[in-house]
Amino acid sequence: MEPIDEAIDERALFARAPSGTADFVVIANRLPIHHSPTQGTSEWRPSPGGLVTALTSVLQSRNGLWIGWPGVSDDIEAPCTFEGIALSAVAISADEYEEFYLGFSNATLWPLYHDAIRAPTFHRAWWATYQRINHRFATAAARSVAPNGTVWIHDYQLQLVPAMLRAMRPDVRIGFFLHIPFPPSELFTQLPWRRELITGLLGADLIGFQVPHAASNFSRIARRLVGATGTDSVLHYDGRVIRAGAFPITVDTTLITATVADRRVRERAAEIRRDLGNPEVVLLGVDRLDYTKGIQQRLTAVSEMFASGELVAGTHVVVQVAVPSRESDAHYDLERHNLEQVVSAMNGDHGFVGSPVIHYLHQNMPFEELVALYLAADIMLVTPFRDGMNLVAKEYVACREDLTGKLILSEFAGAAAELRGAFMVNPHDLDGIKESISLALKAAPSEIRARMLRMRRKVFRRDVSDWAQSFLSALNSGSAASESHEFDQSSSINSATDVATREG
Ligand code: G6P
Question: The whole model's pTM is what?
């Protein structure tokens, strides 16, 4: 690796970090808290999401430390602890935010790893900044981890950290988990710095992916590009053994079950249906507003069904939640603009006074409100063009304890490998989406129950803490054990083609 020129004063940066004492360190681009300025005051709030839930108890019990970016590039100081866990904030300047976060992470890697749905942009300056920030994260970990400790690195923003950390601290056990898809060679090899990324990842002892196919994409590329030897699950490189495998992330079923049992949430679900005008069928979409999610495509299909009379305003109603995301990126801005035109045309063309056909919410939503929406929805639409896992699909299934509710699911979401009871769709096929919605509308209650039961068995087999435990025990035991056995063997598409795989 080239010597790295540090733009930020790292001595000042790491002065507050605990040094050499943490037995277990988690490194993720974001800290488990976010800064939320409210009415002139500012405060730090826990970030929602399974990763935080999954790792909190492990970190609490193992003298843990979480290293991450606080999400604000100015001088706002992040707290040093959260729920008993030590936090170490890695600063990213405004220029670095442009080149590392918006640039290399989200305009190079994100589209490249998601089927190049948007053309990835390759800039040498972005690459230099990506290396510098990865080095900064690696240095923070190298300074804080105790002798022979364990470090778990997360996601595509930090793929160079494993090798950088290993060079600084060879005594440490290093795990890496990729929350998004890992692309096939045809796409990955476009990357001018493909060898560097592969050797960066090979610094880990265990590399985890969402689905088995992603693990084999990675291992094949490692053999071809950098001369690693071995199988898809055990690689030999640079005199070391590196294991790769699938550890499909899942949801916090305990939290979901408790939220579903909350009387106020159930009352809210009933209230939502009343507020929607007591339609016969509520169709729901919940997505981060991202071009990978296929939101426009699905709404276009639904709109055609209103046009043909198969769906009828007042009887059928759509709710689309689009959580704001990466808003300073032009692709995301355009996606929002185009999506809002589709939404507006749907209501303009098919709604009538007092009965819009779609309710569109471009906002963050408290978890209880999301669960109330899941309970209110008869049909859940999850149609990404490509998705590492997609936890919305699993959350919906986990909420439907009365075995009602139909899931329309993209075969290109990682979740499709497990949720075989869903109505599967190719998100590029508008007629196929319409056909699946039709089938779901007409399906007999017995079929719906059978499908939901099959999916709930999968989702309740293990929760997100089991996911974290299984990764960490594979890491610490040095075994090649992955969770591949969790996949439904009748899954044809995901095992046969280059279909890799929400997000975590
Ligand atoms: C995906 C990625 C995460 C990322 C999240 C939100 O789930 O896998 O690493 O944190 O999207 O994106 P953001 O850019 O806001 O962190």
Answer: 0.92
